[in-house]
């Protein structure tokens, strides 16, 4: 079973995205399951994980409502306010929905790069760790020192780094991203999504641009803790098939067919504890 571990659905008319404005060009449009479904069929993907794009519980509930209608949806990585006094109540309520499989704070949009280390945030993350419930970490390289400290404090937190932490692919910079992501990878309960790379690359990118980054992630996380994510529609104008191909072309030669099955499916199923029927 093939799983795309990271894609989005949205409607700008919902008015809670903030970042999604007419200036975002092609992204300022409705992107819904009927548009992605043919691409999933074309590239033989059976299920997807849809990830929040707005810092509201209302958007999480919107995405959960899609799961009952769209057979390709395996789960929702939603949003909760980690500093809210009502966090425990909201978390318990959303947990009643079997499609609620993770949460993601929008760290890259926050003024405080060390937000993830705030005392009330840590208390909420402790509740996630106790439930073995996953968190997606939306990072840029400036956040990595704080995330290193997070896992020193909370080694049992189950997490996945989205988009390789958005390294500076456009100018080929590797350090200190390489060293810091390696420190994080030492924690066996932390995974990494090989996703979102084209948005960090040059406009006229070459497949070779991604190789040093992909090879390092495979080296430090291993083939049991990496997942493919298309980041559709954020990847546009790069087409879905191009995103799949660039990752396949960038993988080390040592990656076997069995490893590819993990990368494109079973690792995401295990990490998010997806309850999947037969396809």
UniProtKB/TrEMBL annotation:
InterPro entries: Amidohydro-rel (IPR006680), Metal_Hydrolase (IPR032466), Metallo-dep_Lactonases (IPR052350). Residues 3-273 form the Amidohydrolase-related domain. It comes from the Bacteria. Belongs to the metallo-dependent hydrolases superfamily. This is Amidohydrolase family protein.
């Amino acid at each position: 079973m093939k799983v795309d571990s990271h894609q989005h659905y949205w409607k700008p008319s919902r008015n809670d995205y903030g970042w999604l404005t007419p200036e975002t060009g092609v992204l300022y449009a409705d992107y819904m399951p009927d548009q992605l479904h043919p691409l999933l069929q074309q590239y033989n993907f059976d299920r997807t994980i849809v990830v929040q794009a707005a810092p509201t519980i209302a958007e999480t509930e919107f995405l959960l409502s899609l799961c009952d209608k769209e057979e390709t949806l395996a789960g929702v990585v939603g949003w909760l306010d980690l500093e809210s006094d009502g966090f425990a109540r909201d978390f318990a309520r959303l947990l009643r929905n079997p499609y609620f499989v993770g949460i993601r704070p929008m760290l890259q949009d926050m003024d405080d790069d060390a937000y993830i280390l705030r005392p009330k945030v840590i208390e909420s993350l402790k509740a996630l760790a106790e439930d073995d419930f996953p968190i997606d970490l939306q990072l840029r390289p400036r956040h990595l020192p704080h995330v290193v400290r997070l896992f020193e404090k909370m080694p049992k937190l189950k997490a996945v780094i989205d988009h390789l932490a958005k390294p500076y692919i456009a100018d080929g910079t590797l350090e200190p991203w390489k060293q810091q992501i390696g420190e994080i990878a030492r924690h066996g309960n932390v995974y990494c999504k090989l996703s979102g790379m084209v948005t960090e690359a040059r406009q006229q990118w070459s497949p070779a641009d991604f190789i040093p980054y992909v090879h390092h992630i495979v080296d430090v996380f291993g083939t049991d803790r990496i997942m493919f994510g298309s980041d559709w529609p954020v990847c546009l104008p790069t087409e879905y098939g191009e995103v799949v191909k660039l990752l396949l072309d960038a993988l080390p030669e040592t990656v076997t067919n069995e490893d590819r099955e993990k990368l494109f499916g079973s690792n995401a199923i295990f990490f998010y504890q997806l309850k999947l029927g037969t396809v």
